[in-house]
Amino acid sequence: MDAVRSGELLFIKTVKDGIPNRDPLADSDARRLFGEDDGRISLSDVSVKRDVRDFVLAKYPDGGDAKDKFVFVHEERTPEGKLLGRGSLVEKIFEQAGITVKDLKSSEEKRRALCEHAYDVRLFGAVYSVSKESFHLTGPVQFGWAHSLHPVETQYVQGTVVMPSKDTTSKEDGSEEGNTQGTIWTTWYLPFAMFAMPAVINATIAKETGMRGDDVELMLEALWKGTLYRQARGRGFQQPQLLVHIEYTDPFFRIGYLDETVRADIGSGTKIPTALQDITLDVTGLNDRISRYMDRIARIRVWKNPDLKMIGTLDAEELSF
User: Which of 38, 81, 118, 243 is the least buried, fewest Cβ under 10 Å from its Cβ?
Assistant: First the structure.
């Protein structure tokens, strides 16, 4: 089994015509952690983890050849429409993996079996509490908040639905009774924004969950392709722009705050960007920060959208999915 190195990620992505992470306390507008005057909006780690999980679930619906890529956290229903809870989801994973639940005598044995067969548990950990069994597992991969690299303005729009909610009925005089028109819908949307999200990988915790090197490679692929795979009008059209993966020789070292080292250079005369071509990503600060710690770095890899304009270069191996 190939070991995992401690490392860091920086993921840059753009969102167009949608709200990628709504604020439930603000009438479904985007989340704002910095206040109205700052102008930036933010995305929690939940949506990015969902992209990773959904991609792996779509690529390996049967858990893969080794039955080790099942996804624990997802919505699943019975043929009768009943939503499965934690216990039933775990039992289904074990059933598909060929494990007899009765053979697992303790919560610890169940925890180890779940780590072995559930991909997202090895990466992100899990909180499991069913009847008299419970355990909490911290994941070796932790994503931070993603903040937009520039101020944004969200817009409030409305439209109409063609179909009425109920059938109409015909009256004796030939007229129709009931709603003959559709309903009005309203929503917030974001014209365009570029986000930077940091993440860390802890090699010590990876040993506890059994996360392997090939798990990391699949996560990198899922971050990129899972963003493209996402299909939901409300979350907008999302596009991965830059993914940086730094691996360290020292398992207890971290550069930290990589998201603060990049800057969106917006074209003159443009206050708020509305398209990718309005932004040039300045990575000179990131490269300067990395260059100070080369003696602690084992490998740096980057994946880049060819259409992304950049100021500066990164001294790293450039790859593509």
Answer: 81
- The 10 Å Cβ neighbour count of residue 86 is 16
Q: Is the Cβ–Cβ distance between 229 and 242 less than 8 Å?
A: no
Angle at 77 between CA 80 and CA 46, to 5 degrees: 160
273 in Cβ contact with 264 (< 8 Å): yes
* Rama region for 290: left / alpha / beta (φ>0; ψ in -120 to 50; rest): alpha
pLDDT, greater one: 86 or 118? 118
Distance of CA 130 to the CA centre of its chain: 27
Angle at 81 between CA 55 and CA 96, to 5 degrees: 50
Q: What share of the chain is helix, strand, coil (3-state, %, to 5)?
A: 30, 30, 40
For residues 111-137, one letter each, b for 16 or more C-beta atoms within 10 angstroms of the residue's C-beta and e for the rest, the string is: bebbbbbbbbbbbbbbebeeeeeeeeb
Per-residue pLDDT tens for 260-274?
999 999 987 778 999
Q: Is the pLDDT of residue 281 over 90?
A: yes
> Is-contact 55 226, C-beta < 8 A?
yes
Taking the C-alpha atoms of residue 43 and residue 21, their distance in angstroms, rounded to an integer, is 6
Sheet holding 279-282, edge to edge: 263-266, 279-282, 310-311
DSSP 314: -
Distance from CA of residue 108 to its chain's centroid? 29
Q: Sign of the CA dihedral 209, 215, 216, 219?
A: negative
How many other C-beta atoms can be found within 10 angstroms of the C-beta atom of residue 296? 13
The Cα 42–Cα 20 span in angstroms is 9
- Can you tell me whether residue 36 is helix, strand or coil? coil
Instruction: Classify burial at 196, counting beta carbons within 10 Å of its beta carbon; exposed 0-12, middle 13-18, buried 19 or more.
Output: buried
Left (φ > 0), alpha (ψ -120 to 50) or beta: where does 240 sit? beta
Helices (H), the chain: 45-59, 86-97, 107-117, 119-124, 203-209, 213-229, 284-291
Q: Residue 77 is encoded by which pair of tokens?
A: 């229903």
